[in-house]
Specification:
This protein has about 150 residues and is α+β, with helices and mostly antiparallel strands. It has one domain: Nuclear Transport Factor 2, Chain: A. The chain contains five helices and six strands, in the order H-H-H-E-E-H-H-E-E-E-E. It has a four-stranded antiparallel sheet. A hairpin with a 3-residue loop joins strand 3 and strand 4. The radius of gyration is 17 Å and the shape is globular. About 25% of the residues are buried.
């Protein structure tokens, strides 16, 4: 069995890590979770954000973990407020984990960020990680290389 697993993993890695082709349609569960999360950001609804952010054990609102989850969600909100988001593709997928390429747009700025999600035991998807550092400092203009071109 161990040999079969090793061969399977080697084949997956050789074929591009099991990633879907560029532009592959994301799965509805993780996509819906990101859309709901970003709707909560747009509504300034930090309580709802804590219900959609967590781990495979459940939402931060349910588990109370990590202990500073409210502060972390406030930081996420600070980075994402005033932006819009569009799920572009599913970059990586396993049974219980998904990474989506999400285009986040702010005035004069557009950036693709990975959003990582995990499936809970009751089949919900929780946003677990967002690569916020790629957005730059909240409230400051994007670097010139990330600014949108007119038209």
């Amino acid at each position: 069995m161990r040999i079969l697993t090793t061969i399977s993993l080697t084949a997956i890695i050789a074929c591009g890590g099991g990633n879907p082709p560029s532009g592959a349609t994301p799965s509805p569960g993780p996509t819906l979770a990101v859309e709901q999360f970003m709707r909560a950001v747009a509504d300034s609804n930090l309580v709802r954000m804590t219900e959609l952010w967590g781990t495979s054990s459940g939402s931060a609102a349910e588990t109370g973990k990590p202990a500073d989850y409210q502060r972390r969600v406030a930081v996420i909100y600070t980075f994402l407020r005033g932006s819009t988001a569009r799920v572009m593709a599913e970059v990586e997928r396993s049974k219980d984990k998904s990474t989506l390429a999400v285009e986040v747009s702010r005035p004069d700025c557009r950036k693709r960020l990975p959003f990582t999600l995990e499936r809970t035991k009751d089949d919900r998807w929780m946003v677990t990680s967002i690569e916020l550092g790629a957005l730059g400092t909240p409230g400051r203009p994007c670097p010139p290389e990330d600014q949108r071109r007119p038209g």
